[in-house]
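Take a sample.
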Amino acid sequence: MARTTPMRLIELMVLKQDICSVIEFLGKKGIFQFQSNRASSDDKSKSNSDFEILTALQEAKVFLNESDLQIDEDYLFSCTHPSDEDRAAAKKFLDNVDELKKKEAHLQSELKRVKDANDEALSFSNLKVPFEQLDHLSFLSLRIGKIDPAVIDELKFAVGDRAVIIPLGNDNSRIMAAASKKARFALDSELKRFGFINMEIPEDFKGVPDDVLESLKRELSETEKTFEFFQEEKRNMAKAHEDMLKKLLATFAIGSQIIEKQNSLEATNLVYRLTGWIPEESCHEMMKKLDALTEGRIAIRVYEPYEIPSVINGTEKVPVKLKHGKLVSAFERLIFSYGSPAYGTIDPTPFVALFFTLLFGIMFGDAGQGFIFLLLGILMSLKVVKIGGWNKFAPIFIAIGTSSMIMGLLTGEFFGNEEILKPVALAITGLFGEPHSPILHLMPDGSAHSIKTMFMFFGVTVGVGFIINSVGLVLNISNNFLMHRIPKALFGKNGVSGAIFFWYVVLMVIRIVVFGHSFCTADGIIIGITLFLTMFSEPIHRIMEHEKPVFENGLFAAVIEAIVELLETLIGYMSNSISFIRVGAFGLAHAVLGFIIATLSEMAGPAYLAVMLVGNAIVVVLEGMIVAIQVIRLQYYEFFSKFFNETGKEFKPFAFEYK
């Protein structure tokens, strides 16, 4: 049985001139987990100029509407930390973007003013009151008069954002000035300074003059065109600088993480000290590459885990790394979501992969529906189908799909139909005797044979539970021996004494029920001894460890604790075994549900295909989720609880990422 990956602690003494290159190497290699250092935690007061530039670049990306610009891990790792040329290019690019931002803000403000003036004037175009009264009825102040055409541009610059100046007529000798009520005094002052002569509007004139409306409309159209030209300019800039922006984002993402890590290290004016964990198998190669990278300007020391004082006294846990193939590694998250195995113990992932696949197949036996999972897993592994971060679990879908198909072949179910696979079942059973279909008949039909088959099926699922519980016990016993915890390995409900009690009782029940034997004295002796050693495991531990007093809280308390331990042992093993009846119940329920869908489809007549598709879709999605949850529950409570007495620390190496 494979144990967790052996680890080593590496201490690196790196010169200041090499620190960026070393951290970059470690971040791209992704096999070095920095040791937590309480004395040198991240100093938030230290600046990170690359992070500031990265933030500005990300804001520029949003401004340029480059949401489709994605940086994957391969591209990120192809870049390096920023050079002086990169910093200069980033500054120039950001300066250009800032100019665009200012220009856009100005144009947006100008467009809003012109549009507001136009809307305001239009709202009074049909108002049947004297024009001179408009100033009292709206939020817009209008001034119409004569001015020297040569000073119009200067006037526009002088009023700035406070007003809109619109030339009237063909010779530009007349203008209309529009401003908000708040800005009317400033507008009047500027108009007077540039020699504006207010025009008298006839007393009988009502509404807004047509030429004023036309001029406002023309001004709005020109402003909108100018704004659209700017948007095109912005799009052109984004397209022209897309590759450069992508490279700068990746480069400064690396640079910011290097500086962040560098700020957290112990250092003198010339030397940095790095300590961290690395898998033993990668140790030699990494040392050679670091030596070459720094041209020998590096000091490296390697430590065994149990040479480290913090590990010996228990204040630090050695990080745990599991090493598997593609299929088994997909089940690792199921382990780490519960907790990390302790360092140096047996890796439970292969057992989890096997039991998860087996239990799912028993509870979800249908060749057609299983094929859906198998096909989905294949498409996810080929990245034809992308479902967020779920693609890494493609091997799990392939495994449970295959398991469900095998179980479906045994029960004769193909999307709930029992006729399609009938020839296959007859051919297979014909090889071993009289042909019959299905191979395993789960649907009860009232006959004695079907009832017997159903109970045998439930017996098989309980037997699977016995195997899973037994493997959990063996893992717990083995782990305690590996960690030199002999008393815990030998005594207790999950130790040798508890395991022998559990196994002996199961074998005794089989002997009595199947072979007709009776309970004998030897049975009582073996059960009594194993229960006694299990009940009083705590005092026995203290005796073996030479701890005093033996009964820490007194004899009476020890007896009460022993009785509680006895009840917990009996109830625990009984519930752990009976719990697996639900596997058979779900398998039977799935068969019944398939039968119901097939029956409803036949009753639907012309809508046969629609009912079949909808029914099976519901089963695949909803029942698939329910079965998966039940399998996880059985793994957590019946399997993990046997040996997960303490958790380790998952190996999380330093690696660059783009957020």
Observations:
- Residues 32 and 653 are 5 Å apart (CA to CA).
- The chain has a mean pLDDT of 86.
